[in-house]
Design goal:
By secondary structure, the protein is α/β, with parallel strands linked by helices. It contains ten helices and 14 strands. Helix 5 packs parallel to helix 7. Bound molecules: zinc ion (ZN). Zinc ion (ZN) binds next to loops.
C-alpha cells in the first residue's frame, strides 16, 4: 500500500524567470516540484529584473500563468525605493508576501542600510507575511523589528545554533517570529560530511548562502526541531558550468531531493511523518495564509530504496549536491486538484495547469 500525504508546500524557491531561464523556468521548476511531491511553491523575487512593483510582478506572473504545472504564488522584493505600499494597495494581496534581503545573497535586492527597513515594516500590510533573509546579527535585528512593530516575521533558511536558540527565546517571549530550515543545512556540514557519497563536489558546488555550517550547528537544528516551523528547499538552481566556473554563484537545487531525504530521516528515527506534515503543509499554509488545495495529495512508497541521480531530475541545472546518496522513500504519484499531475517518473499535466493561489 502506498502511503498518502497532503500535497506539500515549499515556501522558498527560485524559479529564475524572468531573466535566467537557462538555469530554470516556471515549466522546469514546477515540474521538479511535482516530481518532489510539492504541489505549491512560493517564488522568490530576486530575478532579472527583480520583482518589486506591479510591472515586474506581471512579468513573472504572465510567465507562470502559461508555464507552471503546480500551484504557486510570487513574493515581491523590498527595495530602496518601493516602500510606499500604502499607495499601491492592490499589489500586496496579489503576492505571497514581502521578501527582505538583509544579508549577502544572489541578485540585486540587498538592503544594507537599516534606515531602509523601517518604511517597509511600517507600510507593508500587517496581516501579510514579511520574510527576512537575515543571518546571525541581522537576524537578531529582524526579530527586534518584529517585536517593535508587533507583526509576524518569517526568517528564511536558518542554519546556525545561535539562530535557532535565539528564535526559541523570541518565541517564548511571544514575539511573532517563525522560521524555516533547508535540507542541506540538516544533512551537510561545511566539511561536507554526511551519510552519503560526497565525491564530485567541487568548491564551486559547495557555495550556498547561508553557508554550510558546523556539526555543532547541524546538531542544534536537529535538537530543536520543535522551534522550526517549516522545511523549505531554497531551490536555487545554477548550471554545472556556472558552479564549476572561477566565480561560482551560491545556491543548490532542492525540489526533488527534500522529501526523499526527510523520509530517510523518518526511516532512521530522527523525524516523524507528522513532522513532515506539520512543517511542509500545516504550518506554511498558516504562516502564508494559503488556501486549501482541494482533492490534492501525494502517494509514496516508503520502503523504495534508490540513489539520487541528477540525470533523472526535472530541474534544468543538471546537478545536485546529493548525487549518489542512497535514500529510502519515493514519490510515486501526485494528485493536484483532482488530476494526476505526476506518476511513476512522468509529469502528466500541461504547462499552465498550475494556478496562482492568490488570483482567480
Ligand atoms: Zn533563497
Amino acid at each position: 500500500m502506498p502511503m498518502k500525504l497532503p500535497g506539500l508546500i515549499d515556501p522558498h524557491v527560485h524559479m529564475r524567470e524572468p531573466g535566467a531561464t537557462h538555469k530554470e523556468d516556471w515549466d522546469s521548476g514546477t515540474s521538479a516540484a511535482l516530481a518532489g511531491g510539492i504541489t505549491l511553491v512560493l517564488a522568490m523575487p530576486n530575478t532579472k529584473p527583480p520583482i518589486c512593483d506591479a510591472g515586474t510582478l506581471d512579468l513573472a506572473l504572465d510567465s507562470a500563468r502559461s508555464k507552471a504545472r503546480c500551484d504557486y504564488a510570487q513574493f515581491v522584493g523590498a527595495g530602496s525605493d518601493n516602500a510606499d505600499w500604502g499607495r499601491h494597495k492592490a499589489l500586496p494581496p496579489r503576492t505571497a508576501g514581502l521578501k527582505m534581503y538583509l544579508d549577502s545573497t544572489f541578485g540585486q535586492l540587498r538592503l544594507d542600510d537599516m534606515a531602509l527597513w523601517t518604511p517597509h515594516f511600517e507600510n507593508w500590510p500587517k496581516d501579510m507575511p514579511i520574510v527576512a533573509h537575515s543571518e546571525s546579527r541581522s537576524m537578531a535585528a529582524a526579530i527586534l523589528f518584529a517585536a517593535i512593530y508587533d507583526r509576524p516575521v518569517h526568517i528564511a533558511h536558518i542554519s546556525l545554533r545561535e539562530e535557532v536558540l535565539l528564535i526559541k527565546a523570541a518565541k517564548e517571549r511571544g514575539i511573532k517570529v517563525t522560521c524555516e530550515v533547508c535540507p542541506h543545512h540538516l544533512f551537510l556540514t561545511q566539511d561536507l560530511t554526511g551519510f552519503g557519497n560526497l565525491s564530485g563536489l567541487t568548491p564551486g558546488r559547495k557555495e550556498v548562502r547561508p553557508r554550510l555550517a558546523t556539526q555543532k550547528d547541524v546538531d542544534a537544528l536537529w535538537q530543536n526541531l520543535d522551534v522550526i516551523d517549516c522545511f523549505a528547499t531554497d531551490h536555487a538552481p545554477h548550471t554545472i558550468e556556472e558552479k564549476d566556473s572561477d566565480n561560482p554563484p551560491p545556491g543548490f537545487p532542492g525540489l526533488e531531493t527534500i522529501l526523499p531525504l526527510l523520509l530517510t530521516a523518518v526511516n532512521d528515527g530522527r523525524l516523524t511523518m507528522d513532522d513532515i506534515i506539520q512543517k511542509m503543509s500545516v504550518n506554511p499554509r498558516k504562516i502564508f495564509n494559503l488556501p486549501e488545495q482541494p482533492e490534492t495529495w501525494i502517494e509514496m512508497e516508503e520502503n523504495a530504496q534508490y540513489e539520487i541521480k541528477a540525470s533523472e531530475q526535472f530541474t534544468r541545472c543538471g546537478w545536485t549536491p546529493f548525487e549518489g546518496w542512497k535514500v529510502k522513500g519515493k514519490v510515486r504519484k501526485v494528485v493536484l486538484r483532482g488530476r494526476t499531475a505526476f506518476e511513476d517518473g512522468k509529469i502528466l499535466v500541461k504547462a499552465g495547469y498550475g494556478r496562482n493561489v492568490f488570483e482567480n
